[in-house]
Amino acid sequence: MKALILVDIQNDFLPGGALAVPNGDAVVAVANRRMPAYELVVATQDWHPADHQSFASQHAGRSVGEVITVDGLEQILWPDHCVQGSPGAELAAELHAEGIDHVIRKGTDKWIDSYSGFFDNDHRKATGLYDYLKQRRVSAVDVMGLALDYCVKFTALDAVELGFEVGLLAEGARGVERSPGDCDAAIRRMKEAGVQIVEGPS
Ligand code: VGL
Ligand code: ZN
Description:
Blueprint: E1 2-7, H1 26-34, E2 40-46, E3 67-70, E4 73-76, E5 102-106, H2 129-135, E6 140-146, H3 148-161, E7 165-174, H4 182-193, E8 196-198
Helix pairs in contact: 3-4
The structure holds pyrazine-2-carboxylic acid and zinc ion.
């Protein structure tokens, strides 16, 4: 069985949001169009405590975009985003929520970020997504959403490592592009790992 994983399609990643992804809103219509073709649809939700240590605001004298070490791990500092219970953390209002079977929240531990929907960035703890999919006999996943060069990429790479057949719905993904070329590099890395890049509408 094949599942669709909708990655972090949340207000804070849409235009006007705290960590807006350029043209991030374009993925909502793609998600709505593609969802009915899958037997199972899972959404991930970035879900940070207000004092999450990936927030630049938590580190005196540091600014957004700097890279520091948090609990022994490299961490890019982001603006405050997807704070638990805030409007920015909600799934996009136009996303057809009734088509989503399950939501996996991640990034809940203040000391470690979680780009992947499966594990935190150091693979210390699982989010429950793998068990959820395995219990339902899922063997293949298509991944789309935000942001292509962070959470979509790491979710797809972990899915490959976990043994799923993985597709990237490229038309349904947009990236932050902190540095020019990040999105192309992300797609290249996914391709090399064995992710099938699915282009264009269907
Ligand atoms: C994301 C940065 C920080 C993402 C989440 O969803 O790609 N990026 N938190
Ligand atoms: Zn985050």
